[in-house]
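Thread: 2-acetamido-2-deoxy-beta-D-glucopyranose complex, take 2
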Amino acid sequence: MAAGGLLCPCALLASCQRCSSSSPPPSSSCSPTDEFKSSSVVELMKKEGTTLGLTVSGGVDKDGKPRVSNLRQGGIAARSDQLNVGDYIKSVNGINLTKFRHDEIISLLKNVGERVVLEVEYELPPVSVQGSGVMFKNVEVTLHKEGNTFGFVIRGGAHEDRNKSRPVTITTVRPGGPADREGTIKPGDRLLSIDGIRLHGTSHAEAMSILKQCGQEATLLIEYDVSIMEVMDLPPAVCIGGCGKGGEVPLVPGQ
Ligand SMILES: *[C@@H]1O[C@H](CO)[C@@H](O)[C@H](O)[C@H]1NC(C)=O
Ligand SMILES: *[C@@H]1O[C@H](CO)[C@@H](O)[C@H](O)[C@H]1NC(C)=O
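Output below.
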């Protein structure tokens, strides 16, 4: 397809890759690492004496900014389905971590009250494009919530800076959670609608709130990538072991 302006995120990715690989950098405004980051606010509730199950690396005395290095399975942070390993933590309950040492961050998180508000920053999910061997398919999945979540993390959504707008994308499917047990949804899939409410044009915060407010059972419309090879209706002659629908590429090029 033509490299039209409509495929904005990818066109931009391409332009920024060009930009960053050229030397010297043509302009300071083209910094792919910043340009494709977004942030959100994560609220966690914990009882006194319990921990979040959140391990943080980094600090001003360490190599690297504070970020999530582990989410303990079954812990409050993991079950919130709002954090991914690798997320940067900018602030805790409004306290800016920029100048904090590693031990100070650990101590802050340990002694924080029952309500923990984290400002997190992360790389935006990559954008899938139809065309080069990939096409999109949709599927409806009905899930039941547990702890008011379906067991996946979403990122992306519409952003006031158009360059940062992405489809609402599932980045993590929590092992053992509702989505994982149902089995259809995989990381990288896009969430198009929740009980018929379309998410096109909704921000990350709006999509999160729709997810929170929908019923205990909801039907999610999911978009996923399939390789063209899997969906082509090929004549039996080129199939080895039968051409099952959705089969695991049982075909070889006919000679
Ligand atoms: C934290 O402080 C630094 C400078 O000290 C500032 O650049 C940054 O925007 C602040 N971040 C937050 C989340 O307040
Ligand atoms: C979005 O990306 C385009 C192309 O790289 C750039 O010219 C423009 O300044 C960017 N807009 C913002 C708000 O960063």
